[in-house]
Amino acid sequence: MVMLAAIVVGVASTIWFFILFKNERLFSRCLCALAFGVAGAAFGMLWAEALPRFTAGRTETLTYTYERTLPWKFCNSNGARIREVITQRHIALCGATWDIPAFFQRGQIQVTERVGPFGVRIVRVGLPPP
Q1: What proportion of the chain, given as a percentage, has pLDDT over 70?
Q2: Of 15, 59, 111, 125, which shows the fewest CB atoms inside 10 Å?
Q3: pTM of the entire structure?
């Protein structure tokens, strides 16, 4: 969803630039359009990331069952996968980032998240109280 928003804003800013500067030389138009496209995509990505953060108003603390996963590109340690109740999607968490124990294949974790109309933002992940 975030990448789609970034692509849409980047393409729109590039088209706007080509219409605005149609009398310039082709090379300078292409170079500047590329710069506008990258800047538009970066703005779109920041906007799409910030929207759930600023509109989330309700805080919920839920207990989830997690299962360990294999490491992936940005997580070299153990990973954990949970099924998020609000969005009904799987969320992959990096075990080292969120202090999820590596010695259990499955377990319970407590997730505090802020919920809004445009998404869910995870605030804290930890072990539930005994």
Answers
A1: 85
A2: 59
A3: 0.56
